[in-house]
Write a structure and sequence with these properties.
Keywords: Acetylation, Cytoplasm, Endonuclease, Exonuclease, Exosome, Hydrolase, Magnesium, Manganese, Nuclease, Nucleus, Phosphoprotein, RNA-binding, rRNA processing. By secondary structure, the protein is an alpha+beta fold. It folds into 6 domains: 2-208, Rossmann fold (3-Layer(aba) Sandwich); 225-310 and 334-349, OB fold (Dihydrolipoamide Acetyltransferase, E2P) (Beta Barrel), CATH 2.40.50; 351-419, OB fold (Dihydrolipoamide Acetyltransferase, E2P); 443-685 and 752-822, no CATH class; 691-745; 841-926, OB fold (Dihydrolipoamide Acetyltransferase, E2P) (Beta Barrel), CATH 2.40.50. The protein is built from 23 helices and 38 strands. The strands form 12 sheets. A 5-stranded antiparallel sheet has the order 10-9-8-11-12. It has a 5-stranded mixed barrel with strand order 13-14-15-17-16. A 5-stranded mixed sheet has the order 18-25-24-21-20.
């Protein structure tokens, strides 16, 4: 049956357009129930024996949740107990429109066979489709459509079953009006909460219920702690008029009474508004999109240089004393910033948070505080009857709301993750907190992998060059199995050199738009944790068929240059190829071959040629203004049985690291230029913006403290001044200065060439750049491979590749995934560093002051690549006399003044008093300040301890 609706629409030019919409209705849509004998269905989802033990429904029944139940109680619906649920099409469409994350979770549930969730297309069923009535809102129409579908199911199951009283349909809604109308229609209907509380064998499921706005069982207070949020209409009008600003709320890690709101502007006109104090934060949560109002200029303050120590204790509903303390400290600052207050919430970015329960001291209380693992997220008040079980566990909690009278938001328990401190549990927390997709690859994804045994076929060779005869080899870190790149260098008959960079041809195996491609695009990058790798693509590809291992034939995408001996490029060509790597070397093995003068084999000669050219290329890059910065990376030596770290050392870089890097950079620049020339509107490029001048403040002050001049007018000026920055008898000074310079830099990002005009890569001093050399572990490189393949006629294009808006949206996701991957990797290093120090008691180490704060110094320990804070206002002893000078910056503690780069000696130990926020604690040994410094403990001398001033 066909229903059509005709209406007219006025066009921009003033004409009238007639629009006809057709809606098809059918009589043959299945109900999906095993017990049905009427529907001629090939397969069923809903079970005949649909029993959940319930006081309210002591009979077999199916559940039909309305839209709001799905949106707000998805945690409950995901529980294994809840089965045999009918999701009507109306609900599915509304959920898709209102919340993409919930929609994805709902689709995942529907695909789980053991859950028995059935999608009923009521909008196309002849007996359940309802027209919107005159004056009826879209919401009321949808509620009516859900009731009509529930009524149809009730009658349909009665008439199609020999036992008409056995199987019923229960509608779940939290809307009182909807519930009353359903009861008037003779439907069996309950509120979600009363149904869940009726489940006899699963009382713990009540903990997973999200609180609704009309719940009256929350703690109330006569005192309103926060100003009221303005309605969205007022906010939108205020943003339009310029009286309010819209931006992203970013809470401080160091100070829970401070945040900034990042307001995105045109080009470089973005600004940050400082927020201080509970009232001005006004219930903003990290990453929320908020509306802020600027305070009068005389109320602007500076960011606090005060570091608040987390003592682990939950605060009560009154934090005025601490708030005043922080505000008094900040108001005295000279360097004031635009300061404001949150007036409304535009979009909440709430997600389930990992953390631990602070069990209430009140006996038999069901109300407890939850402390998130992320310090930027406030504590959350939840109700649970499982407190005794959950104590000491890592759990997940979701926020439901934040009333004006409550110091903390309200939320509900989602699930337990395992015992705190357990390595597997902590790794799971780490991945969840950084939103790293880490579930096993689905069967749908795996179905697109090539069938084994696999080999290169004659068809594969049609558009490929056979380069198996070349002396190609790879150079990687020890234990690398996902080998992306290999190199070769040989002398040509004309005396020039041929240099080739050969990159794994991942795009041959991952075709656009299939499940494998979508999964790789979503993951965006491989995440490397200590002792574990979360692959972007399945292992068959990452460690086998795409990996350019030695002595096997592999498909590659090759960038080949003809160069003279001055490393000047004479010709460049790109080709899909087949290679056979002659050696898989580590950096150390490659270095030994180059240095061993007795070796003259082809591989060694190739490496020496590459190394010689790389040195010239690097020199040219630096002359052009490329930066050589520094950051301390650490490598853990892991016990093969316990998987605990047994040694920790900073990574040492060799010439061969630089050799590989130079040719990867050159390949990326060559490919960037090629794809931009061919596709100026849709090339996937990478840029590194120049830092704003204010970013360099700390670097300039630090250099000035040692009478060293640093110029920041351009990347070249900075590079040149860093090269000559030296202090007598302080060889490590230059490294420290470069570490500080690294902290001043902006983040490099992917972008679509048709959506931006600034392509420059500041750090590399290159006018154009992209990522081509690591497609096994970066999805951006796969896109670049596809563009390059189309450019040289080796593959065909597809619509999304040429759509600059879709490319731009993809770039945004890749930037997000890359950033979260970096954070996850740092968190993994921090966790393994804690494990390393856990069994070592107290160590004495030398370090340098990297930053000076009002109440602390931040110390870098080069031996371990470790930063820690030495506090001078500890609660267990009298606070010493502290004088902070921001201009220095210096901190005078009693009679001793600390400056950046000062050498200090500290004790290092693990403070595990707060199991969730274990941290490395440092105490000052030298310089000796009476009443402040601690005596040096007796510790065993550490083997192979390097001198810092070598």
């Amino acid at each position: 049956m066909l229903k059509s609706k005709t209406f007219v629409k006025k066009t921009r030019s003033g004409g009238v357009m007639k629009i006809v919409r057709e809606h098809y209705l059918r009589d043959d849509i299945w109900c999906g129930s095993e017990s049905c004998s009427e529907c001629k269905q090939e397969s069923t989802v809903l079970q005949r024996d649909a029993c959940i033990e319930s006081n309210l429904c002591p009979y077999a029944h199916y559940l039909i949740p309305d839209t709001n139940v799905v949106l707000h109680q998805i945690d409950v619906l995901e529980d294994p107990v809840i089965r045999n649920v009918i999701i009507v099409q109306t609900v599915l469409q509304e959920v898709r429109h209102r919340s993409a994350p919930v929609y994805k979770r709902l689709k995942d549930i529907i695909h789980e066979k053991e859950k028995h969730f059935y999608t009923f297309t009521n909008e196309h069923h002849n007996e359940t489709f309802v027209e919107r009535e005159p004056g009826e809102s879209a919401n009321d129409r949808n509620d009516r459509a859900i009731r009509v579908a529930a009524k149809w199911y009730s009658q349909h199951l009665k008439t199609s079953k020999s036992d008409p009283d056995g199987l019923k349909v229960v509608l779940l809604t939290n809307d009182q009006g909807n519930k009353e109308k359903a009861e008037e229609s003779g439907l069996l209907v309950y509120k979600c909460e009363e149904y869940i509380k009726s489940l006899i064998a699963n009382p713990e499921l009540v903990d997973q219920l999200a609180l609704s706005n009309d719940d009256k069982n929350e703690i109330t207070s006569s005192k309103m702690l926060f100003p009221e949020h303005l309605p969205l209409s007022r906010i939108q009008a205020g943003i339009k008029s310029g009286s309010f600003l819209q931006g992203t709320f970013r809470a401080s890690r160091d100070n829970y009474l401070e945040a900034t709101v990042f307001v995105q502007g045109e080009g470089e006109d973005s600004t940050e508004v400082l927020l201080q104090g509970l009232q001005n934060l006004n219930r903003g949560v990290h990453q929320d999109v908020v509306a802020v109002q600027l305070l009068p200029r005389d109320q602007w303050v500076a960011p606090s240089s005060f570091v608040l120590q987390d003592e682990g204790a939950a605060k009560d509903d009154d934090a005025e004393e601490e708030e005043d303390r922080v505000l008094r400290i900040s108001a005295a600052e000279a360097a004031r910033k635009p300061t404001g207050k949150v007036v409304g919430i535009i979009k909440r970015s709430w997600r389930p948070f990992c953390g631990m329960l602070n069990v209430s001291h009140i006996k038999e209380s069901t109300r407890h505080l939850f402390t998130p693992a992320d310090r930027r997220v406030p504590r959350i008040r939840i109700e649970t009857r499982q407190a005794a079980t959950l104590a000491g566990q890592r759990i997940m909690v979701a926020i439901d709301g934040w009333p004006r009278h409550s110091r903390y938001p309200n939320g509900h328990f989602v699930r337990s993750l395992g015992s705190a401190g357990d390595k597997e549990t902590e790794q799971e927390v780490l991945l969840l907190e950084h939103d790293v997709p880490h579930q096993a690859f689905s069967q749908a994804v795996l179905s697109f992998l090539p069938k084994m045994p696999w080999s290169i076929t004659p068809e594969d060779m049609v558009k490929r060059e056979d380069l198996r005869h070349l002396t190609v080899c790879s150079v990687d870190p020890p234990g690398c199995t996902d080998i992306d790149d290999a190199l070769h260098c040989r002398e040509l008959d004309n005396g020039n050199l041929e240099v080739g960079v050969h990159i794994a041809d991942v795009s041959h195996f991952i075709r656009p738009g299939n499940a494998l491609d979508k999964e790789a695009a979503n993951r965006g990058t491989t995440v490397y944790l200590c002792g574990k790798r979360i692959d972007m693509v399945p292992e068959l590809l990452s460690s086998n068929l795409c990996s350019l291992r030695s002595d096997v034939e592999r498909m590659a995408f090759s960038c080949i240059w003809e160069m003279n001996h001055k490393a000047e490029i004479l010709k460049t060509r790109f080709t899909k190829s087949v290679i056979n790597s002659k050696a898989s070397l580590t950096y150390a093995e490659a270095q030994m071959r180059i240095d061993d003068t007795t070796r003259t084999d082809d591989i060694t000669k190739s490496l020496r040629g590459l190394n010689k050219l790389a040195k010239i290329l690097k020199k040219q890059r630096i002359q052009n203004g490329a930066l050589t910065l520094s950051s301390l990376e650490v490598r853990f030596h892991i016990d093969s049985e316990t998987h605990d770290p047994i040694d920790l050392q900073t990574k040492e870089l060799m010439e061969t690291n630089s050799m590989v890097e130079e040719f990867m950079l050159l390949a990326n620049i060559s490919v960037a230029q090629k794809i931009y020339d061919e596709f100026p509107d849709c090339a996937m490029l990478r840029k590194h913006p120049a830092p704003p001048p204010s970013n360099y403040d700390i670097l300039l002050k630090a250099a000035k403290s040692k009478a060293v001049e640093i110029h920041t007018d351009s990347a070249k000026a900075l590079a040149d001044s860093l090269d000559v920055a030296k202090v007598d008898n302080f060889p490590y000074f230059n490294t420290l200065l470069r570490i500080l310079a690294t902290r001043c830099m902006m983040q490099a990002v992917y972008f679509c060439s048709g959506m931006d005009s600034d392509f420059h890569h500041y750090g590399l001093a290159s006018p154009i750049y992209t990522h081509f050399t690591s497609p096994i572990r970066r999805y951006a490189d796969i896109i670049v491979h596809r563009l390059l393949a189309v450019a040289i006629g080796a593959d065909s294009t597809y619509p999304d590749l040429m759509d600059k808006h879709k490319q731009s949206a993809l770039a945004n996701n890749l930037n997000y995934r890359h950033k979260m991957s970096q954070y996850a990797q740092r968190a993994s290093v921090a966790f393994h560093t804690q494990l390393f120090f856990k069994s070592r008691g107290i160590l004495n180490e030398e370090g340098f002051v990297l930053f000076v704060r009002k109440n602390a110094i931040i110390v870098l320990i080069p031996r371990f690549g470790l930063e820690g804070t030495v506090f001078f206002d500890t609660k267990d002893k009298a606070t010493p006399n502290l004088v902070f000078d921001e201009e220095g910056p210096t901190l005078k503690v009693e009679q001793h003044t600390f400056c950046i780069f000062d050498k200090v000696k500290v004790t290092i130990s693990l403070d595990d008093s707060n199991i969730q926020h274990q941290k490395i604690r440092m105490s000052l040994i030298d310089p000796v300040i009476p009443g402040v410094s601690v005596p040096a403990p007796d510790v065993e001398p550490q083997a192979k301890k390097p001198k810092l001033d070598r």
